[in-house]
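Archive entry: two folds, one per protein. Generate the first.
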Amino acid sequence: MLTRRAGIAGERPFNNLLHRLNDADFALIEPHLVAADADPNDLLYSPGDNVETVHFPCGPSLVSYRVANEDGRDVETILIGREGAVVGIVSRRGSILVRAARMCCGTGPAAATRP
């Protein structure tokens, strides 16, 4: 598991999205945030997974959203850094990743929400 429980209370994680939240909105999310470390190419989500965790890349961390080609090669379609959050694609069937997509982590720290 990529998420390591560690206290990050007090100071906000270095993620622009989390920094832009007003204090009242951040207070709703903060109790659910945990620190998470990931190595390059760590898999955050697999195709078909039910998505229960939202990842907020922090600092120099980057996460790529990849789609498999017919020939088996992956194509990087989206790159998400500290300006956003990483979640699955919501389909008609609920919060589940489509079959042809996978998430791979770049490098560095992140914060994650847990249900």
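Generate the second and append.
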Amino acid sequence: MSDSREQDVQNDKERYERKGQQLAAIGAFFAGTAVALGAFGAHGLKKVLSEAALTVYRTGVEYQMYHGLALLALGLGIRVLSSQVGTPTLLKRLNTAAIFLIIGTLIFSGTLYIYTLAGVRLAAMITPVGGVSFLIGWALIVIALIQNRRSS
């Protein structure tokens, strides 16, 4: 391998190690804030919101937690895989999937919080965009893993 190619490989490893670290941090942030928002909902909103609104709010918290944990796992997985040779396509695909999960979390959970806390009905109409982003992210993870298995 030429020196230039070796340097490119090393740069890719370092870049994906950083991306993995960032994704893990975002996942931990989403999970941690989901705990805080869940506690706020259970203790601070119980007397303020209707049971139906609380259910919608809890859905936002739950999906934020699920996807926060998924991002934490993806980030840690990307960090581990970044040191292995022959995984740049898998890393790229998993990173793209993670971006869709982040966007999905922000849109899906965020619009549910806006809808329940501020009563903005338009927010509820945007919520499905976040759901679609989740589905795309999960589909990309499945595709990445299947295609990586075939190329192994």
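Annotation attached to the second fold: The two ends are 21 Å apart (CA to CA). The chain is about 90% helix and 0% strand.
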